[in-house]
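Sync notes, pocket subgroup
Present: LS, DG
LS reminded everyone that the earlier model was apo-only. Rerun requested with fe (ii) ion included. Inputs:
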Amino acid sequence: MLTEREKLDTLLRLSVELGYSKDLDILMEHILTEARRFVNADAGSIYLKDHETLIFSYTQNDTLQRRLPPNEKLAYANFTVPIDQNSIAGFVAKTGTILNIPDALRLPATVPYHFNRSFDEKVGYSTRSILTIPLNTAQGDVIGVLQIINAQDENGNVIAFLPEDELMFIHFANTAAMALERAKLTRDLILRTIKMAEMRDPQETGAHVNRVASYTIEIYERWARKKGSDEKEIKEKRDVLRMAAMLHDVGKVAISDVILKKPAKLMDEEYNIMKQHTILGARLFLDGHSDFDRAAIDVSLNHHERWDGKGYPGHVNVQTGSPIADYAGPDGQARGKTCDEIPLFGRIVAIADVYDALTSVRAYKEAWDEKRVLETLAENAAKQFDPELIEIFFSCLDFIHNIKQRYPEKPHL
Ligand SMILES: [Fe+2]
Ligand SMILES: [Fe+2]
């Protein structure tokens, strides 16, 4: 059990930590784990608001978890609850007030809400004490509901939630709501941005970006395990990297149609403008400070760098696009980054993007056959690509083929 002092410390730490969390799922896991730890609660759930309903979005339950084999995840259905006075979560979302129920099986006859026992009956669980807190944004909108179930004393007996914990939870929920709102906005924005990039450059299809992102995280995971990274770090990086990889060519939204859709080969001048998509893409994320923003910059800026230093845009200042003083070549141009100067995520996406472009039909070419593509990649190890990553790529070809089948190109109309 946490002491009052520890609870306060946790609150302070969380208000910083939650602000940095980027992915919605990881954030919900974090919020619920900490909320339960506050009061030694056995279970809990998060509902997110979608129009007039609450979507049951995330849950944890130690008792049910213990019945599963190790490493198995708790499966749950994404059911919805209307925002009205009939259910406990619905009531809290509707009224925006916290609800502390000492015993769900003995609700007073005067309350409008009911406890729905069907979930407990299905899984063999017994919900007794429930603390349900609205997740209010700074603007006062309810974006969801946090529900903590079965507080326990030191001996594991279920007890009621203390009234003095309510205030602590209101603070906690405010922080959590802000972080959740931010993560939701980020996710929506990414999905919209990808749609926009697809409209501008028909070659950057949803299928292409999904394949590139999936190849990328497959390679990353293997690389990270080989280097002995811990599982928590791998899991967190996977999520940001997946989103960042999807956005590798997002800078193309700022390139003129005349160049983007030119049916013939680009003139030197036009090609130089096209190359700017790396810097323009990275610039979109400069204001952000999350791991995702950093990953998106790494990917956008560096996915056309080459291991041998002949790629672009090289050592440039993202803000201005001009060469970084110490890294300009004799011609005044930015020197290309080489080897480890290229951030890991850029080196991985470079391989994933080229592999996918070569094996796909493009406006200017047929799809190459697999053998020719693999030969080209192998020949370019230590020239265009990081040789260690190429080796990792070849070690997981079965997975790569599997991904390719999972995201087939839709036939062009
Ligand atoms: Fe690109
Ligand atoms: Fe691409």
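DG: Residues 204, 208, 212, 248-249, 353 surround fe (ii) ion (ligand 2) (CB under 6 Å).
LS: The mean pLDDT is 88.
Action: DG to write up.
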